[in-house]
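sorry for the late reply, my laptop died twice this morning and i had to redo everyting from scratch. anyway the thing you sent over, i finally got around to it. pasting the sequence first so we're on the same page, its 473 residues, then the predicted structure underneath. double check i copied it right bc i was rushing
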Amino acid sequence: MSNLSSRLKSIGFTGRLFIMLASGGLTSVDTAVEFPVRVIESGPTAAVIAGQYYGKLFNIPEMFCFDMGGTTAKSCLIQGGVAGVVPAFEVGRVQRFMKGSGLTIQVPVVDLMEIGAGGGSIAKVSKMGTLKVGPESSGADPGPICYGRGGTEPTVTDADLLLGFLDENYFLGGEMRLDKEAARQGIEEKIARPLGVPFIKAVWGIHDLINETMAGAAKTHMAEKGGNPKIVTVTAFGGAGPVHAYSLARKLGSPRLLVPPIPGVGSALGFFTAPRAFDMVRSHKIGLEEADFSAIEKMFKGMETEAAKTLVKAGTAENIRFERSLDMRFVGQGSETNVPIPAKDFTKMKIEEVRRLFDKIYKNLYGRTYPDSPVELINYKVRASLPGRPLQLPKIEKRVASLNDVIKGKRMAYSPIAKDFTPFTIYDRYKLFPDAEFHGPAIIEERESTVIVGEDASISVDDLGFLWIDLRY
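ok and here's the structure:
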């Protein structure tokens, strides 16, 4: 990182180089070098921070960010306009997607859910004679069969192509031609025949099963956080995210889907929306009744001082905002509940006040609380942040006379509602204009990704180019 910073200066770069942290903030190169472990998982985190920014921009407090790439699908529930941060996560898992099989790292990280579901996820027939998709992936090399780079295992991308969702002549904006016939042969030989099912049933089964896997994991994730899929707006990122987001939203029962411009590089855009921030955590388990509030205030002050010194490296010491919270739990519990507390002198708070804050959040999460059960404090957290520098998204212009000029044509694609191939209208996203409105079935194409919308949904475009997709049930 130091070498990168030096080389940038040597070629005349006069700006500042910032590094994304897993906790959702930006920091200086010096701080990243000092705490390299805090950079792990920062890429997927950036997409969530972009989603958080969009939520505030459009006043949508409850969002579900869904980022699907080539090997994995990562998602995060945003509640009250804020993405949750947890004090630890696992790395180096022996079994990549199995909790408990890796090394726990005690640093703050945005609360991401990760499952083995991506465009490269491999479909196979299990030992039980059933269809299985993922978590194994073909990766980018050799990649799906349709890439024509030596891949022999059928994948989700192969199925998406054969379902008509992808255009073999417009992948990566036409830079890479996909081999549809090879994908067809691979799925026929390795999935349809061994299962003894019609070809189209095998192809749709791959696409639908990966969506079902993601929806099941998403529902569990939301339930653990006290979220409600019936009220969240699903936001799609990644190359494969917009292809699967409509079906995922339907399985969740979510009323609305939001697809931002250039969703395929949503993580990159997230870097421009992230604040300069740094998180501090200290651990000390003690019962609330026995806690020394003066010692806790001293701990908070020390973390604020340390975080402020770190922020100076990323900008300025002026206008630093501090946010405090506690991780609390009932005595004997194995998991904690995060409780934001006022950023004031902790010694002026009363035990009853802290307990009320805990009970309120716990009841919102789980439907009830236990007033007679003692609670304990586990972690003490501080986030220090500098004022944000709002990203100015460019407004799109009307470059064509009517919606007919946006239409590229029609393509037969599979509809789960009709249970057959039906004509989907194809739209050029780059020609869409403000206030444009149309209905599914539709395919909206751009270089980095493709948006699929069924016939039970309507699409509208705002002046920033966001696609607002309303689903009917």
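The mean pLDDT is 90.
thats about all i looked at so far, will dig more tmrw
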